[in-house]
Write a structure and sequence with these properties.
The protein is α/β, with parallel strands linked by helices. 24% of the residues lie in helices and 24% in strands. The longest helix has 31 residues, at 234-264. It is globular and about 55 Å long.
Length: 381
Protein backbone atom coordinates (compact mmCIF):
# COMPACT_ATOMS: atom_id res chain seq x y z
CA UNK A 1 0.00 0.00 0.00
CA UNK A 2 1.08 3.60 -0.39
CA UNK A 3 2.35 4.82 2.94
CA UNK A 4 2.93 8.46 2.11
CA UNK A 5 0.16 10.53 0.66
CA UNK A 6 -2.31 7.69 0.52
CA UNK A 7 -2.58 6.53 4.12
CA UNK A 8 -6.20 5.56 4.02
CA UNK A 9 -8.43 3.89 6.50
CA UNK A 10 -9.49 1.50 3.79
CA UNK A 11 -7.60 -1.53 2.60
CA UNK A 12 -4.79 -2.53 4.97
CA UNK A 13 -5.30 0.19 7.59
CA UNK A 14 -8.97 -0.67 8.09
CA UNK A 15 -8.02 -4.29 8.65
CA UNK A 16 -5.09 -3.54 10.91
CA UNK A 17 -5.88 -3.53 14.62
CA UNK A 18 -3.14 -1.03 15.36
CA UNK A 19 -0.17 0.58 13.70
CA UNK A 20 2.55 -0.79 15.94
CA UNK A 21 5.58 1.11 14.81
CA UNK A 22 6.90 3.26 11.96
CA UNK A 23 10.62 3.67 11.38
CA UNK A 24 11.96 6.31 9.04
CA UNK A 25 15.38 5.20 7.83
CA UNK A 26 17.83 7.74 6.47
CA UNK A 27 17.51 11.40 5.66
CA UNK A 28 17.72 11.54 1.87
CA UNK A 29 15.60 10.69 -1.20
CA UNK A 30 14.56 7.96 -1.59
CA UNK A 31 13.66 7.01 1.95
CA UNK A 32 12.45 3.60 3.02
CA UNK A 33 9.69 3.13 5.55
CA UNK A 34 9.32 -0.06 7.51
CA UNK A 35 5.71 -0.38 8.54
CA UNK A 36 4.83 -2.94 11.18
CA UNK A 37 1.12 -3.68 11.45
CA UNK A 38 0.00 -5.76 14.39
CA UNK A 39 -3.29 -7.61 14.50
CA UNK A 40 -3.81 -10.04 17.36
CA UNK A 41 -0.72 -12.27 17.28
CA UNK A 42 0.22 -11.58 13.65
CA UNK A 43 2.68 -9.03 12.29
CA UNK A 44 2.73 -7.69 8.75
CA UNK A 45 5.73 -5.93 7.23
CA UNK A 46 5.55 -3.55 4.30
CA UNK A 47 8.24 -1.49 2.61
CA UNK A 48 7.71 1.55 0.44
CA UNK A 49 9.84 4.42 -0.83
CA UNK A 50 8.89 8.04 -0.45
CA UNK A 51 10.05 11.54 -1.20
CA UNK A 52 11.62 13.66 1.48
CA UNK A 53 8.93 15.62 3.31
CA UNK A 54 8.80 18.39 5.85
CA UNK A 55 6.40 16.53 8.12
CA UNK A 56 6.85 12.96 9.27
CA UNK A 57 4.11 10.40 9.54
CA UNK A 58 4.04 8.48 12.79
CA UNK A 59 2.13 5.53 14.17
CA UNK A 60 -0.31 5.66 17.06
CA UNK A 61 1.56 7.55 19.79
CA UNK A 62 2.56 6.29 23.18
CA UNK A 63 -0.09 7.20 25.73
CA UNK A 64 0.24 8.68 29.17
CA UNK A 65 -2.26 7.69 31.83
CA UNK A 66 -4.67 10.39 30.68
CA UNK A 67 -4.51 9.23 27.06
CA UNK A 68 -2.39 12.16 25.94
CA UNK A 69 0.66 12.04 23.71
CA UNK A 70 3.84 12.25 25.75
CA UNK A 71 5.13 15.73 25.02
CA UNK A 72 8.34 17.53 25.87
CA UNK A 73 8.56 21.06 27.18
CA UNK A 74 8.92 22.56 23.69
CA UNK A 75 6.28 20.32 22.13
CA UNK A 76 2.52 20.66 21.80
CA UNK A 77 -0.28 18.81 20.04
CA UNK A 78 -3.54 19.75 18.35
CA UNK A 79 -6.46 17.96 16.67
CA UNK A 80 -7.61 18.15 13.04
CA UNK A 81 -11.20 17.23 12.09
CA UNK A 82 -13.88 18.00 9.51
CA UNK A 83 -16.24 16.64 6.83
CA UNK A 84 -18.46 14.86 9.34
CA UNK A 85 -22.02 14.64 10.63
CA UNK A 86 -23.58 13.84 7.27
CA UNK A 87 -26.35 11.72 8.83
CA UNK A 88 -27.80 10.61 12.16
CA UNK A 89 -25.29 7.78 12.51
CA UNK A 90 -22.41 10.20 12.14
CA UNK A 91 -24.01 12.54 14.67
CA UNK A 92 -23.52 9.80 17.27
CA UNK A 93 -20.00 9.08 16.03
CA UNK A 94 -19.10 12.76 16.28
CA UNK A 95 -20.04 12.70 19.97
CA UNK A 96 -17.66 9.76 20.39
CA UNK A 97 -15.01 11.77 18.57
CA UNK A 98 -15.56 14.77 20.81
CA UNK A 99 -15.40 12.66 23.96
CA UNK A 100 -12.08 11.14 22.92
CA UNK A 101 -10.58 14.49 21.92
CA UNK A 102 -11.71 16.05 25.19
CA UNK A 103 -9.59 13.49 27.06
CA UNK A 104 -6.43 14.48 25.22
CA UNK A 105 -3.75 16.97 26.15
CA UNK A 106 -4.12 19.39 23.24
CA UNK A 107 -3.53 23.07 22.57
CA UNK A 108 -6.63 23.42 20.35
CA UNK A 109 -8.93 21.72 17.82
CA UNK A 110 -9.14 22.77 14.15
CA UNK A 111 -12.31 22.02 12.14
CA UNK A 112 -11.90 22.44 8.37
CA UNK A 113 -15.62 22.76 7.65
CA UNK A 114 -18.46 20.76 6.09
CA UNK A 115 -20.34 20.00 9.31
CA UNK A 116 -23.27 18.71 7.24
CA UNK A 117 -23.85 16.98 3.92
CA UNK A 118 -24.36 19.01 0.77
CA UNK A 119 -27.95 17.82 0.48
CA UNK A 120 -29.13 18.39 4.06
CA UNK A 121 -31.07 21.60 4.84
CA UNK A 122 -29.04 24.74 5.54
CA UNK A 123 -31.32 25.92 8.33
CA UNK A 124 -30.66 28.31 11.18
CA UNK A 125 -31.70 25.56 13.58
CA UNK A 126 -28.97 23.22 12.29
CA UNK A 127 -26.34 25.97 12.44
CA UNK A 128 -27.27 26.77 16.02
CA UNK A 129 -27.16 23.08 16.96
CA UNK A 130 -23.67 22.74 15.51
CA UNK A 131 -22.55 25.90 17.28
CA UNK A 132 -23.78 24.51 20.61
CA UNK A 133 -22.01 21.20 19.93
CA UNK A 134 -18.71 22.89 19.10
CA UNK A 135 -18.95 24.76 22.39
CA UNK A 136 -18.84 21.44 24.26
CA UNK A 137 -15.22 20.82 23.23
CA UNK A 138 -12.90 21.31 26.20
CA UNK A 139 -10.11 22.84 24.13
CA UNK A 140 -10.16 26.03 22.06
CA UNK A 141 -12.11 25.18 18.91
CA UNK A 142 -11.49 27.00 15.62
CA UNK A 143 -13.83 26.34 12.69
CA UNK A 144 -13.56 27.53 9.06
CA UNK A 145 -16.56 27.46 6.74
CA UNK A 146 -17.19 24.60 4.30
CA UNK A 147 -18.99 24.64 0.98
CA UNK A 148 -21.79 22.44 2.35
CA UNK A 149 -22.67 25.24 4.79
CA UNK A 150 -23.03 28.01 2.21
CA UNK A 151 -21.92 27.71 -1.42
CA UNK A 152 -23.99 24.52 -1.91
CA UNK A 153 -27.08 25.73 -0.07
CA UNK A 154 -28.72 26.70 -3.39
CA UNK A 155 -29.50 23.02 -3.94
CA UNK A 156 -33.16 22.12 -3.65
CA UNK A 157 -32.49 19.36 -1.10
CA UNK A 158 -30.50 21.87 0.95
CA UNK A 159 -33.44 24.29 1.02
CA UNK A 160 -32.76 26.43 -2.08
CA UNK A 161 -31.16 29.17 0.01
CA UNK A 162 -29.24 32.15 -1.26
CA UNK A 163 -25.58 31.14 -0.65
CA UNK A 164 -24.50 34.67 0.24
CA UNK A 165 -27.28 35.03 2.80
CA UNK A 166 -26.12 31.73 4.36
CA UNK A 167 -22.54 33.01 4.44
CA UNK A 168 -23.70 36.05 6.39
CA UNK A 169 -25.58 33.78 8.81
CA UNK A 170 -22.47 31.66 9.42
CA UNK A 171 -20.50 34.79 10.23
CA UNK A 172 -23.23 35.96 12.60
CA UNK A 173 -23.38 32.67 14.51
CA UNK A 174 -19.81 31.35 14.48
CA UNK A 175 -17.58 34.44 14.51
CA UNK A 176 -18.82 36.73 17.29
CA UNK A 177 -16.12 38.74 19.04
CA UNK A 178 -12.47 37.84 18.84
CA UNK A 179 -12.60 34.57 20.77
CA UNK A 180 -12.50 31.02 19.43
CA UNK A 181 -15.21 28.51 20.22
CA UNK A 182 -14.83 25.82 22.90
CA UNK A 183 -15.00 25.80 26.70
CA UNK A 184 -11.58 27.43 27.01
CA UNK A 185 -11.37 29.88 24.09
CA UNK A 186 -8.31 31.72 22.91
CA UNK A 187 -8.07 35.17 21.37
CA UNK A 188 -7.83 35.25 17.58
CA UNK A 189 -6.70 37.91 15.16
CA UNK A 190 -9.44 38.36 12.56
CA UNK A 191 -8.98 39.89 9.14
CA UNK A 192 -12.05 42.00 9.89
CA UNK A 193 -9.87 44.09 12.22
CA UNK A 194 -8.71 45.73 8.99
CA UNK A 195 -11.65 47.96 8.03
CA UNK A 196 -10.99 47.32 4.35
CA UNK A 197 -11.84 43.64 4.97
CA UNK A 198 -14.33 43.99 7.79
CA UNK A 199 -16.70 41.31 6.46
CA UNK A 200 -14.08 38.53 6.56
CA UNK A 201 -14.41 37.64 10.22
CA UNK A 202 -13.85 33.94 9.44
CA UNK A 203 -10.24 34.51 8.31
CA UNK A 204 -8.24 34.12 11.51
CA UNK A 205 -4.71 33.65 12.79
CA UNK A 206 -2.89 33.20 16.07
CA UNK A 207 0.59 32.32 17.22
CA UNK A 208 1.37 29.42 19.54
CA UNK A 209 4.90 28.58 20.67
CA UNK A 210 6.42 30.49 17.73
CA UNK A 211 4.25 28.72 15.13
CA UNK A 212 1.60 30.64 13.18
CA UNK A 213 -1.82 29.10 12.49
CA UNK A 214 -4.02 30.66 9.80
CA UNK A 215 -7.64 29.90 8.89
CA UNK A 216 -8.99 30.78 5.42
CA UNK A 217 -12.46 30.82 3.88
CA UNK A 218 -11.58 28.82 0.77
CA UNK A 219 -14.35 26.22 0.38
CA UNK A 220 -14.94 23.36 -2.00
CA UNK A 221 -17.15 23.71 -5.06
CA UNK A 222 -14.33 25.58 -6.80
CA UNK A 223 -14.07 28.27 -4.13
CA UNK A 224 -17.48 29.66 -5.26
CA UNK A 225 -16.06 30.56 -8.67
CA UNK A 226 -18.05 29.84 -11.87
CA UNK A 227 -19.48 27.89 -13.54
CA UNK A 228 -22.57 28.17 -11.34
CA UNK A 229 -25.56 25.86 -11.06
CA UNK A 230 -28.72 26.77 -12.92
CA UNK A 231 -30.57 26.83 -9.60
CA UNK A 232 -28.98 30.25 -9.11
CA UNK A 233 -30.70 33.09 -10.96
CA UNK A 234 -28.60 35.36 -13.23
CA UNK A 235 -28.53 38.13 -10.56
CA UNK A 236 -27.43 35.56 -7.95
CA UNK A 237 -24.70 34.25 -10.24
CA UNK A 238 -23.43 37.80 -10.78
CA UNK A 239 -23.43 38.44 -7.03
CA UNK A 240 -21.56 35.19 -6.35
CA UNK A 241 -18.93 36.06 -8.93
CA UNK A 242 -18.31 39.41 -7.24
CA UNK A 243 -18.15 37.66 -3.84
CA UNK A 244 -15.66 35.06 -5.03
CA UNK A 245 -13.34 37.63 -6.59
CA UNK A 246 -13.38 39.96 -3.58
CA UNK A 247 -12.90 37.14 -1.07
CA UNK A 248 -10.09 35.74 -3.20
CA UNK A 249 -8.20 39.02 -2.92
CA UNK A 250 -8.78 39.09 0.84
CA UNK A 251 -7.49 35.52 1.18
CA UNK A 252 -4.35 36.25 -0.85
CA UNK A 253 -3.57 39.28 1.30
CA UNK A 254 -4.17 37.26 4.48
CA UNK A 255 -1.75 34.61 3.21
CA UNK A 256 0.96 37.10 2.30
CA UNK A 257 0.63 38.81 5.68
CA UNK A 258 1.06 35.43 7.37
CA UNK A 259 4.31 34.69 5.52
CA UNK A 260 5.53 38.21 6.32
CA UNK A 261 4.84 37.63 10.03
CA UNK A 262 6.80 34.39 9.94
CA UNK A 263 9.81 36.18 8.47
CA UNK A 264 9.56 39.33 10.58
CA UNK A 265 9.07 37.51 13.89
CA UNK A 266 11.45 34.63 13.07
CA UNK A 267 8.72 32.07 13.69
CA UNK A 268 9.42 28.35 13.37
CA UNK A 269 6.72 27.48 10.85
CA UNK A 270 3.27 28.08 9.44
CA UNK A 271 0.06 26.06 9.10
CA UNK A 272 -2.91 27.04 6.92
CA UNK A 273 -6.28 25.30 7.23
CA UNK A 274 -9.32 25.58 4.99
CA UNK A 275 -12.10 23.44 3.49
CA UNK A 276 -11.47 23.10 -0.25
CA UNK A 277 -9.00 20.68 -1.79
CA UNK A 278 -7.09 22.95 -4.20
CA UNK A 279 -5.37 20.00 -5.89
CA UNK A 280 -8.51 18.16 -6.97
CA UNK A 281 -9.02 19.79 -10.39
CA UNK A 282 -6.64 19.29 -13.36
CA UNK A 283 -4.90 22.63 -13.92
CA UNK A 284 -5.37 22.16 -17.69
CA UNK A 285 -9.12 22.72 -17.19
CA UNK A 286 -9.21 26.51 -17.39
CA UNK A 287 -12.90 26.65 -16.45
CA UNK A 288 -11.94 25.57 -12.95
CA UNK A 289 -9.86 28.48 -11.74
CA UNK A 290 -11.05 28.97 -8.18
CA UNK A 291 -7.77 27.81 -6.63
CA UNK A 292 -5.23 29.04 -9.18
CA UNK A 293 -4.28 32.27 -7.40
CA UNK A 294 -4.12 30.50 -4.05
CA UNK A 295 -1.72 27.85 -5.38
CA UNK A 296 0.49 30.43 -7.08
CA UNK A 297 0.91 32.43 -3.87
CA UNK A 298 1.36 29.26 -1.83
CA UNK A 299 4.18 28.11 -4.11
CA UNK A 300 6.05 31.40 -4.36
CA UNK A 301 5.78 32.30 -0.68
CA UNK A 302 6.65 28.80 0.52
CA UNK A 303 9.76 28.77 -1.66
CA UNK A 304 10.84 32.11 -0.21
CA UNK A 305 9.91 31.21 3.35
CA UNK A 306 12.43 28.44 3.91
CA UNK A 307 10.55 27.16 6.96
CA UNK A 308 8.09 24.26 7.29
CA UNK A 309 4.70 25.13 5.76
CA UNK A 310 1.61 22.92 6.09
CA UNK A 311 -1.76 23.09 4.36
CA UNK A 312 -4.63 21.24 6.06
CA UNK A 313 -7.92 20.80 4.21
CA UNK A 314 -10.93 18.53 3.81
CA UNK A 315 -13.42 18.32 0.93
CA UNK A 316 -12.56 15.05 -0.82
CA UNK A 317 -12.83 12.71 2.20
CA UNK A 318 -9.53 10.87 1.76
CA UNK A 319 -7.11 11.03 4.64
CA UNK A 320 -3.65 11.66 3.22
CA UNK A 321 -0.30 13.32 3.90
CA UNK A 322 1.79 14.25 0.88
CA UNK A 323 3.40 17.01 -1.16
CA UNK A 324 1.20 17.79 -4.15
CA UNK A 325 1.66 21.16 -5.79
CA UNK A 326 0.46 21.24 -9.40
CA UNK A 327 0.71 24.52 -11.30
CA UNK A 328 -0.06 25.39 -14.94
CA UNK A 329 2.88 25.44 -17.31
CA UNK A 330 2.24 26.50 -20.91
CA UNK A 331 5.42 24.74 -22.05
CA UNK A 332 4.21 21.38 -20.80
CA UNK A 333 1.91 19.61 -23.31
CA UNK A 334 0.13 17.95 -20.41
CA UNK A 335 -0.87 21.41 -19.17
CA UNK A 336 0.74 21.10 -15.76
CA UNK A 337 3.88 20.30 -13.88
CA UNK A 338 4.38 18.95 -10.38
CA UNK A 339 7.03 20.50 -8.20
CA UNK A 340 8.10 19.17 -4.84
CA UNK A 341 8.91 21.69 -2.16
CA UNK A 342 10.94 20.11 0.65
CA UNK A 343 9.40 22.46 3.21
CA UNK A 344 5.75 21.96 2.16
CA UNK A 345 3.30 19.28 3.33
CA UNK A 346 -0.42 18.77 2.66
CA UNK A 347 -2.71 17.01 5.14
CA UNK A 348 -6.28 16.03 4.35
CA UNK A 349 -8.45 15.10 7.33
CA UNK A 350 -10.72 12.09 7.61
CA UNK A 351 -14.17 12.57 6.08
CA UNK A 352 -17.58 10.95 6.00
CA UNK A 353 -18.27 8.07 6.46
CA UNK A 354 -15.08 7.83 8.54
CA UNK A 355 -15.32 9.88 11.72
CA UNK A 356 -11.81 9.93 13.13
CA UNK A 357 -9.18 12.63 13.72
CA UNK A 358 -5.58 13.56 13.03
CA UNK A 359 -3.16 14.51 15.77
CA UNK A 360 -0.73 17.24 14.82
CA UNK A 361 2.43 17.52 16.90
CA UNK A 362 4.86 20.43 16.86
CA UNK A 363 8.33 19.69 18.23
CA UNK A 364 10.71 22.64 18.31
CA UNK A 365 13.68 20.26 18.55
CA UNK A 366 12.68 18.44 15.35
CA UNK A 367 13.98 19.99 12.09
CA UNK A 368 10.77 18.84 10.39
CA UNK A 369 8.78 20.68 13.12
CA UNK A 370 5.43 19.00 12.31
CA UNK A 371 4.39 15.37 12.74
CA UNK A 372 0.89 14.06 11.87
CA UNK A 373 -0.64 10.95 13.39
CA UNK A 374 -3.94 9.29 12.36
CA UNK A 375 -6.11 8.67 15.43
CA UNK A 376 -8.89 6.10 15.13
CA UNK A 377 -11.85 6.34 17.48
CA UNK A 378 -12.47 2.74 18.56
CA UNK A 379 -16.23 3.21 18.92
CA UNK A 380 -16.40 4.55 15.35
CA UNK A 381 -14.54 1.75 13.59
Amino acid sequence: FQMLGQIRTGAILRRAHQIFDVLLLGNHIPKMILVVLKRKSCFFLAFTSMLSVSARVDSQPARENNGAHALGKRTFAFALIGDAQYNAQEDAKFVNLRDEINQQKLAFVLHVGDFKSGSSPCTDALYLQRFALFQTFTHPFIYVFGDNEWTDCHRRDAGAFDPLERLDKLRQIFTPGDQSLGKHPITLDRQSQNLLFRQYRENVRWEHEAVLFVGLNIPGSNNNFPPYATTLSPPQQAANLIESRERNQANLLWMREAFALVRTNSLRGLLFFMQGNPFVFPPADHSLTGYGDFLAVLESETRACGRPVVLVHGDTHSFRIDQPAPQPNAGDPRGFRIFRLPNFTRVEVFGSPEVHWVRGVVDAEDPALFTFIPEFVDMNR
